UniProtKB/TrEMBL annotation:
GO biological process, one term: DNA repair
GO annotations of cellular component type: cytosol
Originating species: Trichococcus ilyis
Short name of any one Pfam family annotated for the protein: Hydrolase
Domain of life: Bacteria
This protein's name: Phosphoglycolate phosphatase
PANTHER family assigned to the protein according to its UniProt record, in alphabetical order: PHOSPHOGLYCOLATE PHOSPHATASE (PTHR43434)
Organism ancestry: Bacteria, Bacillati, Bacillota, Bacilli, Lactobacillales
GO molecular function: phosphoglycolate phosphatase activity
Amino acid sequence: METRKFEGIRTVILDYDGTIHDSTKNYIFAFKQAYEYLVAGGHAASRVWQDEEITKWLGYSSQAMWENFMPDLDEEVRAHASKMIGRILLEKAQTGQAVLYEGALETLQALKEKGYRLVFLSNCSRAYMEAHRESFGLDRCFDGMYCTEDFGFIPKYEIFETIRSVFPGGYMVVGDRFQDIEVAEHHPVRTVGCRYGFGFPGELDSADALIDDIRDLNDLL
């Protein structure tokens, strides 16, 4: 792997789901529960879902997910279904059923020991972020933790302005979806795409580097 392009990096901004946390199983379960509610209420047709049809929504904020998935759904019904998914995911984290990718915490600790500042940035709610912070002791790894709910679910590239005002440059953004990589379209940052996450083929093509395991990040820096 080429490392020269990452010289001068001091702050590493990391996505969570699909980058550090393997949310596949829990999200699929939560999505199906919410969809069953929609079917039971006559708001959606019964159907069989393939896993990849569900996991493609990981990386989106809940607001953006529903706007793209079922934009014409009644707002009150949508809010209930969205809260169902959020509640189930929160319960999974609080009861020890969340799973990190193998080597994730060790990789984060290794980067901290090298002197990098690590920042958590996820399209999630504050309750979700706090549950995972507590479940995995993420304060040991991250110097700052940001969720898009605290910013009204604006894009990550806009939240970057806040992070830049607190943490030193140069910057690297690591994530599995276009929402992470597009930060580089607006700011002078380097990007690393995680092919093991939930992105579609080609979604990460503009990243400066691609990795197939979170542990590969330690080899880049």
